[in-house]
Every structure is written in structure tokens, then in C-alpha cells.
Amino acid sequence: MSNMGMYIALTGIQADQAGMASVSNDLANVNTPDYQRQRVNLSALGTGPVGNGVEVQSIQGVSSSILDTQAMATGASAAFSSAQATVLSTAQSAFPEPSSAGIQAQLSSFWSSWDTLGNNPSNPAARQGVIEAAQLVSTSFDSASQKLLAQSQSVQSQIKTTVQNDQKLLSQVAQMNQSIPTAEATGNAAPLIDQRNQIVAQLASDLGVTTRTHQNGAMTVYLGGMSLVQDANVAKVSSNSAGQVAVYAGSGGTQLMGTVAAGGTVGGLAAGLANISNFQTQLGSVASDVANVVNSQLTAPGKAYYYTQSGTTYTAHQGTYRLFNFAGGTAGTPFSLTLNSAVVANPTLIAAAGSSTTGPNDGTNAQAMAELATTPTNTGPSGAVYAGGPQAGQLAPDGNYQIFIGALGSDVSSAQAASTAAANQAQAATAAQQAVSGVDPNAEMARMLSFQNAYQASAKVLATINNTLQSLMAAV
């Protein structure tokens, strides 16, 4: 009986040590994201009213699959919205409006320069003022276009890097799918499962993956209905120029399973990439509109003239010289808005006159040009529709630009509001998850005291039995 009693006390000590170790581990990870507090499952040894002691059956993470799924989904949604809002906010910074450095201010100065020229068309300084103002317009448009291009390239690089890093995480999940079932059999898979949960949470935040855990503890990871990890098999993932994720399977990852729009951060970046392309197209339409409006006024048959001087004689010529050259700007590609080098070299070629008979001091065409800042025109590119606005060409160029800036600001505000709402939902879902799985230091300290008291009781039983045996042996 003494041996049995000592054995029972010993099993109690061992069980309490395992409990104290689990509490220590919980407290050490109180600030670790996605960590699940551990529970020590104990079972009685033997049968009968007394039994033969206690054993540690398993160490298990405390969780709720429903709350875990909800937290993962809302976290992915928050990451998506945050990434898109960041991209849009950065795109908006390419347009410092309202400010003296903005395109709107440059356009205003440009139209004013035509008014100055109209009042004194024979003044070389007034003509040079038009050239300089036009150059600032050109530079402002091109600068904004190049900033959007640089941001697009940066976002594509960020997507590529994230997907490459996630490929490594997927391989780690596949490796754990081999080790966790073995650890489950020994009852100590909790640390591995916790590590895998943290990896999967990162994958969900990055890509918006979903998961399914099988009875043996292995996990299948999905993206858009395609399995990225199944047992020990890992698909190959890569990103294309639009930010979509291509999934390959088979030996060496050569068989294309399909291309899917990811969620999470990558999905948000891809959505932002599409926004940038749209902004680039709209900005190009505005720049093209400016060029077409100005060039049409300078080359209007019977309305636009410039004068050349030979001695004291002035000769009128039909306006044929364009001020702007526009190229590109289709399908979200960068455009180019430059000045006609012939006019830059010889500003007298600017067709400021509105008649061939009124002489070189006629500035009526230049005055008409100045009024185009607020006068609707139909010379803009057809088919380009701005969000919430009419077709390009139905407003003056400034109006089209203001519509574009207004739509951009609305997009940024909407994205930021969506990001805030998604973050709040994710925070609420995480709080609900942590209420079940998270570590409460006060509760853990209470558990620690319980295990310590049980440990001391078992140790006291063991010591009492030992002292009794020693007394009996001494009395013999």
C-alpha cells in the first residue's frame, strides 16, 4: 500500500508540474498575437473509488472555431481596406490641391497669361509669358503622371514581395501538417498548433486565405476555392502585373490551377493598383482635353492668325502651329504633354489675332483663349467619363480637372471610412476571440496558486508516507 500511495502522490506532483508549466507558458505569451491559452487535460489512472493516481492526457489550446474563423475573416477584410486606403491616400498626394503647386493653380496662371497677351499681343514678354505658363502646365501634368507611375511600380513590388514571403509560410504549414498529427498522438501538439495558427493568421491578413482543420490535426489552406496547402503538398503562388495571384500545382509547380483575386493586404493593394490605373487614364483625359482645346483655338480656320514682320510690313498667316503635343495616356499608361518646340523657339507663331485684316495688335483670339477657362467646349476626347460627372469636352478643361480631383477626394474619403469600419469589426471579432482564447493574467495566477497548492499537498503526502515508513523501519 505504501508503494501505491507514493506512486499516487508522485503522479499528482507530475500533473501539477505540467499545469504550472502551462500557466508559465501562458503568462510568457500574454502579449503574443493569436496565442491560445493552454489547458491541461487530466485523467484518472486505474479504477475503483480511490484509483491509481492521475496522468496528463493532453495539453490543448483553448479556442472556438467559429470565433477563430470570424477573427481571421474580419482581419483579412481590415487588411484589405487599410492597404487600399493607403494606396489611394498616396495617390492623392500627387495632386497638392489646393495650393500654388497644384495643377489647378498652373491652369489658372496659364489662362491668365492669354488674357495678358490679348491686351498687348505685340509685346514679346506677353508671348513669352504664355510659353512659360504653358511649360508649368506641362510640367505639372507630367509630374503627377510620373508620380502615379512610380507608385504603381512600388505597389506591384510590394505585392510581389508579400506573395514570395507567403510562399515560405505555406511551406511551413505543410511541414507542420506532418509533425502535428504525430504530436497529437502524444497529447502535446499545442505549441505546434499555436505556431501554425500564428502563421495562418498572417496568411489570412496577407492573402485572405481560409482553412479547414482535419480530425488528425492537419490543415488545408484555401484561396479562392483552390488549395494552397493540403497535407504535405504545397502549391506555388506568384503575382501578375494586376496584382492577382496565380496558383500552380504539380511537380515543380508547373500546372496552372487558376488565377484569383486575393483578399487581405495583397487584395487591397491590387484594388489600389486598379485605382491608380484609372486615375492615370482620367488625368490623361484632362491633359488631352487641355491640349485639344488650346490647339483647336490656335488653328481654327478663319479665326486664328499670327503675323510675321518684314521691316515695317506685317503679313497675316492662318494659325497652324499647335502649342501642345500630347501622346500616350491610354489604358492607364503614362502620358506625355510637351510643348511644340517651334513655338517655344519663336513665340510670334502664337496665333493671338482673330482676323487677317486688323493687324498685329489684334488680340481677340488670345482673349477667346482666356475665356476657355470657364467656357464649355466640345473639343475634348470623347468617351471618357469621370465618376459622377459628364463626358470630357462638355465642360471647360478646368471643370473636368475639378471633377477628377473631387472624385479622387471622394474615393479617398470612402476608402478611409471603409478602413475604419473594417478595423472596428476586426477589433470586435478579436476581442470576442480573446475572451475565449486569450490569456487573463489574473485568472492564470489563480490557476498557478491552485496547481501550487495541489503540488504541495501531493508533496506532503509523499513526505508523510516516507516519514511513516522510516518510523516503522526504525521501530523494527
How would you describe what is shown here?
- The chain is built from 10 helices and 13 strands.
- With 476 residues, the chain is of the alpha+beta class.
- It has a domain at 1-62 and 439-476.
- Strands 3-4-5-6 form a 4-stranded antiparallel sheet.
- Helix 1 (2-28) runs antiparallel to helix 10 (441-475), helix 2 (65-92) packs parallel to helix 6 and helix 6 (264-298) packs antiparallel against helix 9 (397-437).
- The protein is rod-shaped, with a radius of gyration of 37 Å.
- Residues 378-393 have low confidence and may be disordered.
Short key terms for the protein model shown above:
476 residues; alpha+beta; 3-stranded antiparallel β-sheet; rod-shaped
Shape: rod-shaped
Q: Which sheet architecture does the biggest sheet show?
A: 4 strands, antiparallel
Q: How much strand content do the residues show?
A: 5-15%
Number of helices: 10
The count of DSSP E runs of length 2 or more, i.e. the number of strands, is 13
What percent of the residues sit in helical stretches (DSSP H or I)? 55-70%
Structural class: alpha+beta
Order of helices and strands: HEEHHHHEEEEEEEHEEEEHHHH
Task: Please report the distance between the alpha carbons of the first and last residues.
Answer: 18 Å
Integer-rounded radius of gyration: 37 Å
Poorly predicted regions: 378-393
Trace the largest sheet across and list its strands: 3-4-5-6
Mean pLDDT equals: 85
Short description:
By secondary structure, the protein is α+β, with helices and mostly antiparallel strands. The chain has helices spanning 2-28, 65-92, 103-119, 124-186, 190-207, 264-298, 341-345, 364-371, 397-437, 441-475; strands spanning 38-44, 54-61, 210-213, 219-223, 226-230, 233-234, 236-239, 245-249, 255-260, 305-310, 313-318, 324-328, 335-339.
